[in-house]
């Protein structure tokens, strides 16, 4: 039995300067390129069509979100998290909000937690749909992307019903939700859950057994489990290699310990396995949403109203002087969490999304660090690209599932 | 007399060229509409009824665009390459018979521009010259994506032309001629097998050759899933990355005209061309070609793209041996007279 | 002067211009364009000489395959890598030109003063038309009188193909990648580095209830709790041998 | 208008204090603290707990050895490098100026651990790249944002900012929020006048 | 010379052949030399066809066909050699190492 957890030691070879020999061709893929999913730039050294070296260059979408976090009050920063991974905004909100709640030592009421779970899982579905569509499009399957975007619209409709926004939702609030859930929302989500498995089947019909798809994905971009761990991969990139690490299971947050779901693991660690894993994750997300809808109380508080750290209820602001003062202070000055530092991670659709917040007791975070999953996952691209063909590069970028807003922050 | 025939030929060719250009324009409309239907979309429907004026609007837009020549392009070659591609594309239609002769104004007007006895070889030769437009355009752009696209295209076209040519050898053996007229005439005979009466279409006697031809034709015209030279997700737009305006539209036109010509050729070579039940005529050929064009669009909506090495492997390791096998079998059958029904 | 001669002269002139382009152009790709031009015109001249099949073959083989290959190689190789046969010495160029002109004059004189010899053959236009055309006539001659020659040609082509494959065979990709791993690191901080880890023994298979067939004969494993597959991965083949 | 109510101190009953994902909340009970104290008696500076999160502060010179130890020790096996980042402590303490923060996670034991070390301007931290390949970009980002030099890193260059960015490290506390000056794209130094709505390209 | 005869073909053939020969003698790029050789072979074909046409013989065409086949074979081998040569000329470290070892 191998001691799998102690992965093989890293032996650094000498750094190769990226000066091509005459037989090689340096191809600058990006930052403006149809399949680098934004403004990723990859410096490829090719020999014929075989990739000899691959050096991803990032930072074209760097907006200094962490620096901005050091000048915004805690509640003001929530919209900024939308802009990091813009295809999965509610998950980003959730990670940040949970980190702040942990820092403050508060917890949202049960009902709000269920709705957060539902929204987080819907976000996972939306994000996976974008991933599947673009990934298939990169490999040349034109129609799948339109089908996935068609179904993503349904999820965005739910978001719109819930909070009024579709893409950058700014959905989660510190302490829960301050507005009531629209009464027709549960039925909308239920309707979606009834419909969506058929849609997944449709995508699978087009891709899973398609010989060209298999030829393009099987055996391409293999990451062995020890290498995956060594690179610090998380999410489907790690689980595609067969390592069971899902933050929802490993360290349940919200109420994930109350729902039943399985963590799909790949057995070969190639592009095809990561595809299978993500497809299965979508099915499991539907399972989670259905259980949440069964378990969620129909009424009850949505906000931890008693706490100092949350915005007072709207009705009380209008009727009581004390809450009006609280509201005034909360809005004008913000709230001051205790001194300390917390790290809280959630299972984002792309992997482990962590927020590390250092508080000095002022209403503004002293340091706000976003551990974005795709930034770390993208590091494995040169490893996977070794000896691959040029056409594989787009498959590999797709399989990592990056969003440059999140990579560059 | 000779001059008269020449003039009539020129006239027929002129009409055919214009019809082809019109068809090509509406082929883009057809592709967009069909693709949209397959993808739960609407497609162009705002310009004219059912979007029928869309190709014209597109044409005007492309003509009005700036014609950009990159600074490090090989200027002359860059300017000429798309013209080459475009000029060669419709020539293939010249040898396709569209029906019997017409008698108008006392003249005999053949519905065929040129009846040459190496017609099919002529079409293959045009295909092999047509690749120069792509190679030179990709080379002259001074862009690495274009260069890669051109390299891919070269290797692909050489490989698949081989398959294309060899897949047709079976037909030649059965028909005993390279002339499309003769091949068509052979197919108009009736095949009687016991109680069944079938047309002697070569799709029935050469199904393997037909499949090979179809695959190789898709590859030859650089269409999905063999659209590697212009794979937009890898090579941006391949060999025409740097082209804009009407030079771009020349490549575009050439691609669609090639599709139409190949469809007409497939219709003529394998499914009897103008031959059909009820009444023979050009509409049967049009219907058959339309089916092949639909097949092109269908493929594009369904299949992902091959990788370069897989494409070459398919050509050399699968299709070429199959084509040789088909030739051998057909030769044997012909030799022993079983096929001489 | 008949129309035929006029057309012939036109085609011949363009063909010679193309040939001159091959020699004069600095860029090999331009040379190739000149060559294609020359070949196409020669093919048209073949048509005048009633050699339709050869004309088409000329286009398909020469213009469509040989020159395409040359252009392909031109684009593939770096010009500096090409071996130099002789330097750009003016003496040699002058000698070549003088020699060429002298030879041209000599041959032209010979050609123009020639007295026709050789008996006319049986293949008049009518005879060719009678067997069905140039292709058929050529085929009959080729496969009766020249059977051995054509077999030998086939053998030659086969040998050439094999030779070319052997010559241009790249090192196997795996070998190249292994070489790359040895001498150059693709990624900075490569996790494998130099050593290949030992192949571990077979891993325990996940229990059947957890294995879900997912597609193309490949299962995925469904982990029910957080504790499974953290020590050991659900990894089917550690690495394919 | 009265003063706002004072912020209540977090109580031990807060749900976040009992998650157990970071091991025992008593540093003396925590195996990592105990084993490091045995193995590296000089390097361990302190071990603190906030909201059940265990943070170990070590000497910067020993960082790589400690992390290697945490990774390989059979009782600990923190084999997953979650994050490397830094905090500029300019306004919080005198010296050292930065904290390098390493978040570790043990996949088999399902526990997190945070390792910190202080580093001053001009000092170096041993790179973790020889242990974790994933440290590569994370350390590059730290260097880019804070200017912390990681000794032994094979390729320490800027990652998020342009390679020719010459104006310090933006996540330092003394770096102005809007930068020292407006960033001008090379080649566009002189303001280009707009002529009929199109931007004129500057000549070579 | 008012009627087309084999002489025209021979003159064209001579011109093409000699242009090709001058190219082989003066150019140094192996690919251009290669093309010039093709040109010379083609010139031979022209004269063969010309004679065949004038004499109503098919032998000339048959020989031209063989010349084309041989030219194709020659092209394939020649280009293979070019590829092999460039691969050798461009020494990546691996090759040097291998050469040292042997």
Overview of this protein structure:
Chain A contains 17 helices and 7 strands. Chain A has 409 residues and is mainly alpha-helical. The radius of gyration of chain A is 22 Å and the shape is globular. In chain A, 63% of the residues are buried. The model of chain C is unreliable at 181-199 (pLDDT under 50). Among the domains of chain C are: 1-87, Up-down Bundle (Four Helix Bundle (Hemerythrin (Met), subunit A)); 146-185. Chain E is built from 4 helices and no strands. The relative contact order of chain E is 0.11. Classes of the chains: A mainly alpha (409), B mainly alpha (341), C mainly alpha (241), D alpha/beta (204), E mainly alpha (102). Chain C binds chain D through residues 187-191, 226-227, 230-231, and chain D through 107-108, 110, 129, 133, 135-136, 154-155. Strand 4 (263-265) of chain A pairs antiparallel with strand 2 of chain C, so a sheet runs across the interface.
Q: In which range does the helix fraction of chain D lie?
A: 10-25%
Radius of gyration of chain A: 22 Å
Mean pLDDT of chain A: 84
The largest sheet of chain D has its strands arranged as 1-2-5-4-3
Secondary-structure element sequence of chain D? HEEHEEEEHEEE
Quote the distance from N terminus to C terminus of chain A: 41 Å
Helix and strand composition category of chain D: alpha/beta
Percent of residues in helices of chain A comes to 40-55%
Instruction: List segments of chain D where confidence is low: pLDDT < 50 over at least 5 consecutive residues.
Output: 1-12
- For the terminal residues of chain D, how far apart are their CA atoms? 65 Å
Total helix count of chain A?
17
Largest binding interface between chains: C-E, 97 and 79 residues
The general outline of chain A is globular
Number of strands of chain A: 7
């Amino acid at each position: 039995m191998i001691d799998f957890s102690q992965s093989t030691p890293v032996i650094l070879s000498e750094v190769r300067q990226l000066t091509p020999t005459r037989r090689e061709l340096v191809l600058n893929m990006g930052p403006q390129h149809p399949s680098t999913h934004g403004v990723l730039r990859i410096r490829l050294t090719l020999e014929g069509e075989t990739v000899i070296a691959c050096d991803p260059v990032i930072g074209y979408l760097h907006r200094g979100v962490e620096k901005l976090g050091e000048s915004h009050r805690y509640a003001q920063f929530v919209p900024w998290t939308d802009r990091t991974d813009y295809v999965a905004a509610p998950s980003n909100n959730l990670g940040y909000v949970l980190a702040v709640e942990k820092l403050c030592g508060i917890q949202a009421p049960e009902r709000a937690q269920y709705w957060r779970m539902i929204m987080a899982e819907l976000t996972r579905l939306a994000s996976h749909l974008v991933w599947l569509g673009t990934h298939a499009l990169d490999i040349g399957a034109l129609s799948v992307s339109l089908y996935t975007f068609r179904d993503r619209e349904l999820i965005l409709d739910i978001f719109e019903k819930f909070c009024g926004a579709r893409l950058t939702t700014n959905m989660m609030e510190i302490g829960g939700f301050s507005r009531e859930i629209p009464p027709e929302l549960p039925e909308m989500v239920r309707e979606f859950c009834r419909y969506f498995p058929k849609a997944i089947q449709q995508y699978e019909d087009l891709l899973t057994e398609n010989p060209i798809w298999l030829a393009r994905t099987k055996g391409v971009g293999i990451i062995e489990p020890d290498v995956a761990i060594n690179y610090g991969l998380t999410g489907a990139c790690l689980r595609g290699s067969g390592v069971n690490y899902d933050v929802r299971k490993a360290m349940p947050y919200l109420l994930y310990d109350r729902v039943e779901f399985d963590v799909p693991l790949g057995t070969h660690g190639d592009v095809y396995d990561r595809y299978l894993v993500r497809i299965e994750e979508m099915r499991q997300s539907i399972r989670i949403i259905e259980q949440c809808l069964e378990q969620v109380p129909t009424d009850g508080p949505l906000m931890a109203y008693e706490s100092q750290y949350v915005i007072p209820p709207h009705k009380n602001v209008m009727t009581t002087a004390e809450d009006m003062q609280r509201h005034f202070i909360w809005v004008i000055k913000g709230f001051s969490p205790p001194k300390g530092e917390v790290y809280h991670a959630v299972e984002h659709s792309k992997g482990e999304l962590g927020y590390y917040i250092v508080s000095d007791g002022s209403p503004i975070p002293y340091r706000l660090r976003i551990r974005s999953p795709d930034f770390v996952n993208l590091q494995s691209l040169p490893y996977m690209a070794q000896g691959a063909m040029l056409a594989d590069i787009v498959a590999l970028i797709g399989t990592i599932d990056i969003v440059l807003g999140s990579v560059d922050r | 007399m000779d001059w008269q025939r020449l003039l009539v030929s020129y006239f027929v060719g002129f009409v055919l060229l214009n019809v082809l250009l019109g068809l090509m324009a509406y082929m883009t409309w057809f592709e967009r509409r069909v693709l949209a239907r397959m993808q739960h979309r609407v497609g162009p429907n705002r310009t004219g009824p059912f979007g029928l004026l869309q190709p014209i609007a597109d044409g005007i837009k492309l003509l009005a665009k700036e014609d950009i020549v990159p600074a490090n392009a090989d200027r002359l070659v860059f300017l000429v390459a798309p013209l080459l591609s475009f000029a060669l594309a419709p020539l293939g239609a010249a040898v396709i018979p569209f029906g019997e002769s017409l008698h108008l104004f006392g003249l005999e007007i053949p519905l065929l521009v040129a009846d040459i006895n190496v017609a099919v070889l002529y079409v293959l030769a045009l295909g092999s010259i047509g690749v120069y437009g792509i190679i030179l355009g990709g080379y002259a752009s001074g862009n690495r994506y274009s260069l890669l696209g051109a390299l891919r295209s070269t290797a692909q076209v050489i490989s698949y032309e081989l398959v294309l040519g060899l897949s047709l050898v079976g037909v030649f053996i059965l028909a005993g001629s390279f002339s499309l007229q003769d091949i068509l005439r052979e197919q108009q005979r009736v095949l009687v097998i016991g109680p069944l009466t079938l047309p002697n279409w070569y799709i029935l006697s050469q199904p393997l050759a037909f499949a090979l031809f179809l695959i190789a034709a898709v590859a030859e015209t650089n269409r999905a899933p063999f659209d590697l030279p212009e794979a937009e997700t890898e090579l941006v737009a391949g060999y025409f990355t740097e082209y804009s305006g009407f030079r771009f539209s020349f490549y575009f036109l050439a691609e669609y005209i090639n599709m139409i010509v190949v469809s007409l050729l497939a219709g003529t070579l394998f499914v009897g061309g103008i031959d059909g039940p009820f009444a023979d005529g050009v509409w049967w050929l049009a219907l058959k070609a339309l089916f092949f064009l639909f097949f092109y669009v269908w493929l594009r909506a369904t299949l992902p793209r091959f990788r370069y090495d897989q494409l070459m492997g398919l050509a050399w390791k699968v299709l070429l041996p199959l084509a040789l096998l088909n030739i051998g079998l057909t030769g044997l059958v012909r030799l022993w007279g079983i096929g001489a029904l | 002067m008949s129309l035929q001669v006029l057309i012939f002269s036109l085609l011949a002139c363009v063909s010679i211009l193309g040939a001159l382009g091959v020699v004069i152009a600095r860029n090999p790709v331009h040379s190739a364009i000149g060559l294609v031009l020359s070949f196409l015109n020669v093919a048209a001249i073949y048509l005048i000489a009633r050699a339709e099949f050869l004309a088409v073959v000329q286009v398909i083989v020469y213009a469509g395959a040989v020159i395409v290959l040359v252009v392909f190689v031109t684009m593939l190789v770096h010009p500096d890598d090409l071996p130099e046969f002789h330097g750009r010495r003016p003496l040699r160029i002058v000698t070549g030109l003088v020699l060429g002109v002298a030879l041209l004059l000599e041959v032209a004189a010979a050609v123009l003063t020639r007295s026709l010899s050789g008996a006319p053959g049986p293949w008049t236009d009518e005879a060719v038309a009678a067997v069905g055309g140039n292709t058929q006539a050529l085929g009959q001659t080729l496969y009766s009188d020249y059977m051995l020659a054509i077999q030998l040609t086939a053998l030659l082509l086969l040998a050439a193909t094999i030779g070319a494959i052997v010559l241009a065979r790249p090192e196997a990709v795996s070998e190249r990648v292994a070489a790359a791993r040895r001498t150059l690191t693709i990624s900075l901080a490569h996790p494998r580095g130099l050593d290949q880890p030992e192949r571990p023994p077979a891993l325990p298979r996940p229990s059947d209830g957890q294995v879900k067939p997912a597609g193309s004969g490949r299962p995925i494993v469904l982990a029910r709790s957080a504790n499974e597959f953290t020590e050991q991965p659900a990894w089917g083949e550690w690495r394919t041998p | 208008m009265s003063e706002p109510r004072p912020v209540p101190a977090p109580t031990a009953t807060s749900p976040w204090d009992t998650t157990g994902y970071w091991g025992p909340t008593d540093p003396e009970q925590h195996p990592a603290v105990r084993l490091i104290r045995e193995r590296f008696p000089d390097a361990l500076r302190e071990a603190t707990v906030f909201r059940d999160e265990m943070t170990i502060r070590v000497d910067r010179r020993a960082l790589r050895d400690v992390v290697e130890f945490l990774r390989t020790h059979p009782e600990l096996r923190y084999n997953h490098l979650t994050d490397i980042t830094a905090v500029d402590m300019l306004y919080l303490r005198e010296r050292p100026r930065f904290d390098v923060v390493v978040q570790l996670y043990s996949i088999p034991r399902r526990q997190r651990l945070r390792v910190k070390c202080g580093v001053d301007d001009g000092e170096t931290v041993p790179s973790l790249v020889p242990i974790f390949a994933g440290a590569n970009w994370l350390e590059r980002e730290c260097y880019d944002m804070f200017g912390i030099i990681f000794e032994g890193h094979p390729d320490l260059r800027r990652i998020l900012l342009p390679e020719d960015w010459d104006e310090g490290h933006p996540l330092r506390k003394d770096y102005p929020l809007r930068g020292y000056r407006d960033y001008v794209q090379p080649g566009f130094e002189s303001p280009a006048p707009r002529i009929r709505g199109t931007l004129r390209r500057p000549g070579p | 010379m008012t009627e087309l005869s084999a002489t025209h073909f021979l003159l064209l053939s001579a011109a093409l052949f000699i242009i090709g020969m001058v190219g082989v003698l003066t150019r140094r790029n192996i690919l251009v030399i290669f093309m010039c050789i093709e040109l010379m072979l083609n010139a031979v074909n022209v004269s063969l066809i010309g004679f065949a046409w004038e004499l109503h013989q098919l032998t000339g065409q048959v020989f031209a066909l063989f010349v084309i086949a041989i030219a194709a074979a020659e092209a394939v081998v020649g280009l293979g050699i070019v590829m092999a040569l460039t691969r050798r000329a461009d020494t990546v470290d691996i090759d040097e190492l291998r050469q040292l070892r042997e």
